[in-house]
């Protein structure tokens, strides 16, 4: 049983709550291992249509665990490839929504950005304050934040270490939605249920195609999209979805 996360499945939605409240959900080795070991098998489970990753009202996560990291040497972090296992979380193919209230700092902000979209409570505070610790982002922040908000604002965040509130995060493209604090979880779960109600293969293909936009030229991305779109005509869900529209009824997707 995991110790630093709580995992509950309701229908097709898996809710993952980071659970180190005394350390503001600082991301230590244990929490990383538990997330990867618990969620990667669920990623392959056809009954799981969406993940929601969240913290608590005070913190989504206040960063990598500074106390655990502080005394490590270069050889420790190089030989153990510090943070590399987070790539396994980032590479999961089932959609993941980060529901962020309170602090999402350093690795916490980077973990939220590894998700496919960020829903921010009005209380959310995003930041990459590593510069204040004599380091810099190390879980993807320099790359993902720049892709999401552009060079100028990424430089501002990373070089000054300042925080960004929910309104600024939405305005600049980091957050998909800003939600009233007490409605964050209900609205996020509703969106996750909607995603999980669709055929999983088409959702996975659509997700993968959007991801491709961040990594390829427009021409390559458009070709990738066209080929994936065309491949969907091999699925039963495409036949069902289009037939249901023509017959004016709700589609019954089978994930096939
Ligand atoms: N690592 C380890 N412990 C942390 C932590 C972190 N990132 N963030 C908070 N904590 C601990 C605090 O040490 C404190 O523990 P104790 O009660 O044992 O003293 C507890 O959580 C509560 O924190 P505070 O008392 O500091 O709470 P606050 O409300 O006064 O301040 C805060 C909140 C502004 C978020 C402050 O805790 C803070 O600045 N945290 C560090 C943020 C940070 O620098 N994050 C980047 C980490 S490095 C990184 O993430 C590298 C990377 O790119 C992957």
Automatic annotation (TrEMBL):
Enzyme Commission number: 4.2.1.17
Catalytic reaction list: a 4-saturated-(3S)-3-hydroxyacyl-CoA = a (3E)-enoyl-CoA + H2O; a (3S)-3-hydroxyacyl-CoA = a (2E)-enoyl-CoA + H2O
Coiled-coil intervals: none
Origin superkingdom: Bacteria
PANTHER family noted in UniProt: ENOYL-COA HYDRATASE, MITOCHONDRIAL, ENOYL-COA HYDRATASE-RELATED
NCBIfam families: PRK05862.1
Protein name, UniProt field: enoyl-CoA hydratase
